[in-house]
Design goal:
Elements (H helix, E strand, L loop, with lengths): L5 E6 L5 H13 L4 H8 L12 E2 L13 H8 L1 E6 L3 H5 L1 H11 L1
Parallel strand pairs: 1-2, 1-3
Length: 104
Amino acid sequence: MKNDHYWGFISYSWKDKSFASRLHRKLERFVIPRRLRVQFGGTHVRPARRLRPIFRDADEMTMTGRLSDRLRSAIAESATLVLLASPDAARSAYVNDEVEYFLA
């Protein structure tokens, strides 16, 4: 992981909120296998043991159709994007905005 604040940013439809919450907990509890920590941590850096923190927006989105500054900042500070792909997410303008911003 580079010097990002978050290991990942979970992008999901609000209709998938309960699944996203469970996924968030499981990802942050996941213990990275030692051999991978050594392989990707290098010799000068003590690699993290867990995938923490992972960002999941727990507040209601504004209805402006634009990403808030807080979400833009969280996306920019994330090493990875975790897309919770579902039919509802495919139809979500917010999810689309988050993915486009991350890829840019």
